[in-house]
């Protein structure tokens, strides 16, 4: 349901309270969170104190992974309490293995109001912008149940205590939960909800510009598509370029899904949506950046919506999106999975440049064998298997063309235009290099909160040489790279070395 790549290279899974999982805690209760090692496939159960069902989250500036909000307790597990206003912390390190396997910390601080299905965006100063959510998980067509506000948490996850109305959420009820939010290079936010979008200044609590509506169906919960902030670089002035794909019409198993994608440059002089299309309609589709600058779209359904038992016709194909190509030529179709990935699926990039795909829990409590003719549908089971998708850049002969031996002069970096050094061994006959600063973020419900990638300027590359030393320039400020953990990827002729975690301040 929720996932993140931790600084130790492992993956954390965070789920809701269930009456069955494949792991148990020492106290005999089922585990609802786990730490997974993609290299060894070892898994360690983790405990938490409050129900994290449909929470939001982010990495803090100090590297901790934080889950915010959630849902009510369930009576079959008295060890887990109310999570609607909870804040949970997970500490991991690239250098301190003693933290591995430690469970979630919940010191007791609370957010200012209950939030279920809230989005979280890290700001340049390390504070957290926490927006939207339901107060109680009940009918969103009744405004009394809804929380169309935002609040600010400080850099260690302590709320300011103020709930501030956000009109784009208010006017789009009931399609106001899990909004798409991206930090732009001027420190302002791009916010997209349902079909609406705007530029919002958090510091002044003001809408800077209302953007055109995105044509097509609804794009956010319960008909979420996927939203990606395309790679930033000095070549484009770090200007934001956002693509949003998929969506649907209403919350029912009969809902058609939207094949269209809209792409917009919010800070351009005349921002407009450039429309294109996926090969088929997809709801719950999610996009993940790759170190070569392409975007992989996976998961979802061709009919239905988010919710328990309200989706069918799973979309199994990988879609590869090349943002540099002309409109109409950006999508190619990759391999097909044999596993349905519907509601509560996730995808995230691993250090080795492959994409991990997991989840699908489209039922209220786990179902291990399909039960036909149920309403809501139980045709699709709770999925415990993990898949690895290998992109073209590591397929075939490319698997033997990785740069190796990568070392960094420092793993404590600053977003201030300073430089660091990268050394590595490249395959003979190489022609080009790219260095990416990559943040995978907090992944849930097709929303990749804080996900971003910056191509860094480099000097010193010697085409054809096997021994390479690059001077790499960091982004100019924290509007471009907000503080927190990132991964440095070096790609030579499109093939990535295994990434390494760094801390950016």
Rg (C-alpha, Å): 21 Å
- In which range does the helix fraction lie? under 10%
Number of E-type strands: 40
Structural class assignment:
mainly beta
Q: How much strand? A: 35-45%
The biggest beta sheet is recorded as:
10 strands, mixed
The overall pLDDT average reads: 98
Oligomer: single chain
Report how far apart the termini are: 29 Å
Basic shape = globular
Low-confidence stretches: none
Quickly count the helices: 1
What does this structure look like?
The chain is built from 1 helix and 40 strands. It is mostly beta strands and 505 residues long. The two termini are 29 Å apart. The strands form 9 sheets. Strands 17, 30, 31, 32, 33, 36, 37, 38, 39 and 40 form a 10-stranded mixed β-sheet that branches. The longest helix is centred in the middle third of the chain and has 5 residues, at 167-171. The protein is globular. The mean pLDDT is 98.
Give a quick rundown of the structure.
The protein has 505 residues and is an all-beta fold.
Reconstruct the topology from this structure.
Layout: E1 2-5, E2 11-14, E3 33-36, E4 43-46, E5 56-59, E6 65-68, E7 87-90, E8 119-122, E9 128-131, E10 149-153, E11 164-165, H1 167-171, E12 180-183, E13 189-193, E14 196-201, E15 206-211, E16 226-229, E17 232-233, E18 242-245, E19 260-264, E20 274-277, E21 286-289, E22 295-298, E23 301-304, E24 311-314, E25 317-321, E26 331-336, E27 345-349, E28 355-359, E29 387-389, E30 404-408, E31 412-413, E32 419-425, E33 433-439, E34 442-444, E35 447-449, E36 452-459, E37 467-473, E38 484-492, E39 495-496, E40 500-504
Parallel strand pairs: 17-36, 31-40
Antiparallel strand pairs: 1-2, 1-34, 2-3, 3-4, 5-6, 6-7, 8-9, 9-10, 10-11, 12-13, 13-14, 14-15, 16-18, 18-19, 19-20, 21-22, 22-25, 23-24, 25-26, 27-28, 28-29, 30-32, 32-37, 33-36, 33-38, 34-35, 36-37, 38-39, 38-40
């Amino acid at each position: 349901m929720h996932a993140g790549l931790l600084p130790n290279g492992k993956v954390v899974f965070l789920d809701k309270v269930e009456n069955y999982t494949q792991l148990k805690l020492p106290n005999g209760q089922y585990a609802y969170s786990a730490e997974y090692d993609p290299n060894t496939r070892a898994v360690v159960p983790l405990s938490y104190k409050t129900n994290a069902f449909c929470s939001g989250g982010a990495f803090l500036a100090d590297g901790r992974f934080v889950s915010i909000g959630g849902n009510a307790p369930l009576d079959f597990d008295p060890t887990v309490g109310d999570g609607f206003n909870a804040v949970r912390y997970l500490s991991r390190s690239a250098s301190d293995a003693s933290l591995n396997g430690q469970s979630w910390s919940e010191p007791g601080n609370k957010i200012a109001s209950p939030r279920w299905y809230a989005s979280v965006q890290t700001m340049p100063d390390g504070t957290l912008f926490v927006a939207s959510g339901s107060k109680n998980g009940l009918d969103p067509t009744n405004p009394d149940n809804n929380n169309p506000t935002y609040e600010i948490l400080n850099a260690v996850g302590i709320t300011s205590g103020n709930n501030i109305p956000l009109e784009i959420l208010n006017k789009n009820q009931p399609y106001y939960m899990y909004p798409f939010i991206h930090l732009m290079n001027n420190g302002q936010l791009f916010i997209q909800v349902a079909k609406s979008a705007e530029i919002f200044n958090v510091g002044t609590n003001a809408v800077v510009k209302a953007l055109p509506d995105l044509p097509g169906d609804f794009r956010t919960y319960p008909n979420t598509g996927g939203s990606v902030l395309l790679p930033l670089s000095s070549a484009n002035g770090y200007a934001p370029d956002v693509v949003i794909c998929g969506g649907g019409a209403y919350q029912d198993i009969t809902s058609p899904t939207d094949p269209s994608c809209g792409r917009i440059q919010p800070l351009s002089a005349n921002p407009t949506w450039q429309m294109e299309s996926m090969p088929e309609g997809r709801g719950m589709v999610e996009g993940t950046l790759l170190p070569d600058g392409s975007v992989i779209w996976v998961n979802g359904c061709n009919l239905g919506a988010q919710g328990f038992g309200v989706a069918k016709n799973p979309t199994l194909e990988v879609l590869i999106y090349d943002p540099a190509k002309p409109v109409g030529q950006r999508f190619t179709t990759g391999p097909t999975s044999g596993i349905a990935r519907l509601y509560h699926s996730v995808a995230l990039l691993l250090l080795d440049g492959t994409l991990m795909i997991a989840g699908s829990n489209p039922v209220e409590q786990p179902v291990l064998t399909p039960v036909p003719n149920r309403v809501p549908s139980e045709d699709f089971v709770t999925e415990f298997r993990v898949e690895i998708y290998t992109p073209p850049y590591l397929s075939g002969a490319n698997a033997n063309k990785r740069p190796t031996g990568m070392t960094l002069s420092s793993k404590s970096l600053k977003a201030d235009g300073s430089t660091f050094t990268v050394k590595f061994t490249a395959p003979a006959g190489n022609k080009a290099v790219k260095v990416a600063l990559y943040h995978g973020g907090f992944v849930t419900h097709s929303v990749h909160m804080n996900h971003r990638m910056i191509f860094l300027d480099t000097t010193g590359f010697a085409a054809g040489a096997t021994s390479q030393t690059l001077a790499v320039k960091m982004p100019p400020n924290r509007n471009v790279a907000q503080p927190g953990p990132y991964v440095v990827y070096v790609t030579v002729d499109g093939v990535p070395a295994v990434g390494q975690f760094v801390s950016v301040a």
